Amino acid sequence: DARVTQTPRHKVTEMGQEVTMRCQPILGHNTVFWYRQTMMQGLELLAYFRNRAPLDDSGMPKDRFSAEMPDATLATLKIQPSEPRDSAVYFCATSMAGGTETQYFGPGTRLLVL
Amino acid sequence: AQSVTQLGSHVSVSEGALVLLRCNYSSSVPPYLFWYVQYPNQGLQLLLKYTSAATLVKGINGFEAEFKKSETSFHLTKPSAHMSDAAEYFCAVSGSGGSNYKLTFGKGTLLTVNP
């Protein structure tokens, strides 16, 4: 049963600290999306990658957020420095481009910045 | 440009009653349309999708949705609600094929099922 995995599942940190969230795509999926979910804004697309190259990161605050794919099995989202307003659930989703673009979501990382 | 409007942020039904969750979309290209479900503290799970084949799409857990181009709608229905259907439901749109990989989500509809 192929699934997207995300670590950590929960993270509590203090303002100003660096936060790193990780995502392992489903094997063979070449497109990775990062979303943020909050009560106020709903689901927001932060960035996405195709074949490890960034295609669009316009939804991401550039001054503190960064997203990378060091290899095909790992995507990372970093926040440095973190702020209380970054508290949210961050989802990774992956898909196989060239099909119907169905995105498969991971369980999310629930981040609380104090 | 694409957008999705889900009418009703909260829908409450009785167990055994019809479930109807509304979704209207806007898209400048022929759309692909999706319904996802999110259970508490979990990620989103695909219920069903429309990809320009049959306009009536059947999904998991007894749900189905009908694509109506003239009404720009993709409403989700289930004939008889179960307690286990209580969750949040999201409608989403993307462009069909080409290089449009992005999903645009609606704000979500929270479904409550009363015994």
Strand content of chain A: over 45%
Question: What separation lies between the terminal Cα atoms of chain B?
Answer: 41 Å
Please summarize the sheet with the most strands of chain A.
Answer: 7 strands, mixed
The largest sheet of chain B is:
6 strands, mixed
Helices and strands in order:
The complex is a heterodimer of chains A (114) and B (115).
Chain A: E1 5-7, E2 10-13, E3 19-24, E4 31-38, E5 42-50, E6 53-56, E7 65-71, E8 74-79, E9 88-95, E10 104-105, E11 109-113
Parallel strand pairs in A: 2-11
Antiparallel strand pairs in A: 1-3, 3-8, 4-5, 4-9, 5-6, 7-8, 9-10, 9-11
Chain B: E1 2-7, E2 10-14, E3 19-27, E4 31-38, E5 44-50, E6 56-58, E7 64-68, E8 73-78, E9 87-95, E10 104-105, E11 109-114
Parallel strand pairs in B: 2-11
Antiparallel strand pairs in B: 1-3, 3-8, 4-5, 4-9, 6-7, 7-8, 9-10, 9-11
Structural commentary:
The complex is a heterodimer of chains A (114) and B (115). Chain A is mostly beta strands. Chain A contains no helices and eleven strands. Chain A has strands at residues 5-7, 10-13, 19-24, 31-38, 42-50, 53-56, 65-71, 74-79, 88-95, 104-105, 109-113. In chain A, the strands form two sheets. In chain A, strands 2, 4, 5, 6, 9, 10 and 11 form a seven-stranded mixed β-sheet that branches. Chain A has a four-stranded antiparallel β-sheet with strand order 1-3-8-7, with no helix packed on it. The mean pLDDT of chain A is 91. Chain B is mainly beta and 115 residues long. In chain B, a hairpin with an 8-residue loop joins strand 9 and strand 10. Chain B is globular. The interface between A and B is medium-sized, with 24 and 21 residues.
Summarize the structure.
By secondary structure, chain A is mainly β.
